Amino acid sequence: MNNRFKHALRAEQAQIGFWQGLGSAYTAEICAGAGFDWLLFDGEHSPTDIPILLSQLHAVSGTGAHAVGRPPVGTPWLIKQYLDLGFQTLLIPMVNSADEAAELVRACRYPPIGVRGVATSRASRWGRDGGYLAEADDEICLLVQVETREAIDEVAAIAAVDGVDGVFIGPSDLSASLGHRGNAGHPDVTMRIEAAIGAILAAGKAPGILSADVAAARRYLELGCLFVAVGTDMGLMVRATDALAAQFGRGTGEPVQSATTY
């Protein structure tokens, strides 16, 4: 078991990713072939469930894209399912304190360090990988998502938790929490984001973010973000289909309200 994504973050090698929210193995396979370093499989804001995740993991197996799973909530039983399914890297949403982050670390580790249940699973190739149990604790990569005023105030403490490998900043929810819903580019929001990136780096951890705005994504990379998602499958389809329909005089003509950040 070798988590190349985790090792790349530790080596401070920037990883470019792409969001998967359509819940489709077909689109996952297409996106995996594009050359992205990682794909985020979203169980929080999409119809994706465990069987769909399995089909998506099958679709990207053997490609150059590292699969990152985001469960809808950070409960131990759901984390256990995602890890047993074969995800080596998890992104857990709505983490607001260092204590919550520490509990998530425990959920990703086997006893006696943690509380992850021991079972034969796809992750260990149904027990055929004799080294999995010994190696999994060190190779699992835990990314926690800060996306509220409370979390951004505590970001330094959250990043300092041993076992947290990276901290992902969620601009959309953060902007809403700060009173600027729908305006992730508001100066108050960008100021807090940039300060958080600095705090995460100071803790020796990898900062991450999602932005479909190319200039903003490049800016975050310049500031030191090490895992940056640069778009979503849903957003790409909305923009492409709107543009095509408009060429033939179709469409509503209304500006797209779908957020470019999660």
Which structural category fits the helices and strands?
alpha/beta
- Tertiary shape: globular
Sheet of most strands: 8 strands, parallel, barrel
Structural domain tally: 1
The top-level CATH class is Alpha Beta
Could you state the CATH homologous superfamily? Answer: Phosphoenolpyruvate-binding domains
Number of alpha- plus pi-helical segments: 12
Radius of gyration: 18 Å
Strand content: 15-25%
Q: How helical, in percent, are the residues?
A: 40-55%
Looking at the overall shape, the CATH architecture is Alpha-Beta Barrel
Biggest sheet strand line-up: 1-2-3-4-5-6-7-8
The CATH topology: TIM Barrel
Average pLDDT value? 95
**Spans where pLDDT lies below 50 across 5 or more residues:** none
State the separation between the terminal residues, measured CA to CA.
30 Å
Spell out the helices and strands N to C.
HEHEHEHEHHEHHEHHEHEH
Extended strand count = 8
